[in-house]
Amino acid sequence: MSGGRELAGWLLARRGAIEAALQSRLGAVPAPTGGAEAEALRRFRSFLLLALAQGEAAPALEGLRTGERRTRRLLEAWLDAAAEISGPDALELRATLAPLVERFLLALRETAHARRASGAPLPGARRAVSAAIDRVCDAFLAIDVESGAIADANPAAGALLGTTRDALLGADAMSYVPGDAREAWWTQLDAVSEGAEPRRFRALLQDKGGRALCVDATVTRFATRSRTLALVLARS
């Protein structure tokens, strides 16, 4: 597997074995066979083979609607599976393929940012929505389910978390969650991203000073063409 063409041929010859290893790594969750994640994996494999054979291939992402975080998880699992199959060549394979994984994910991120910018709401509409949520007494957070970034918040959320609403905008929501409670929050965000019904749960947050806060939370899905938000109401 010393050359790009040789590695491309090796990947093609062992595609079935890599798929089986990927399925094993994903455990009880089946490897995607349809939808956006399957399409992302298919396009990644096509990009990979072209890049190995020709060197300067660019990912084809037109019309692809999938988030970076979920796609990264899938592609890293695929890379682990390929390394497992390659045996003693695993380190060489990772050194060659890992930069191509990152190139694909970077292109996906840039495409998502451009799509969101083109679909941004008018300022007047944004102000009307802000005025409504600002009157809610419970803490309100709109969290991007893929990136975990806080897309919107109200003053009550700022007060609960020991900061201001403006400081929350764009911040990583997990920075306001204790480390041992983050997996539980990601489980809720994953459920929302998959179209689950509104959910109620007990959760932990932490304020800016690191003080733990136990809250009753509800989360509802809000999807647009460009992204999916988890709308969270939290009461301490």
Relevant terms:
alpha+beta, 16% strand, 5 strands, elongated, five-stranded antiparallel beta sheet, 236 residues, Beta-Lactamase
Structure description:
Helix 2 (15-26) packs across helix 4 (68-86), helix 3 crosses helix 4 and helix 3 (35-54) crosses helix 5. 53% of the residues lie in helices and 16% in strands. The termini are far apart. It has 236 residues and is an alpha+beta fold. The chain has helices at 4-13, 15-26, 35-54, 68-86, 90-118, 123-134, 155-160, 165-168, 182-193; strands at residues 139-144, 150-153, 199-206, 212-223, 228-235. Strands 2-1-5-4-3 form a five-stranded antiparallel beta sheet. Residues 28-33 have low confidence and may be disordered. It folds into two domains: 4-118; 124-235, PAS domain (Beta-Lactamase, 2-Layer Sandwich), CATH 3.30.450.20. Strand 3 and strand 4 form a beta hairpin.
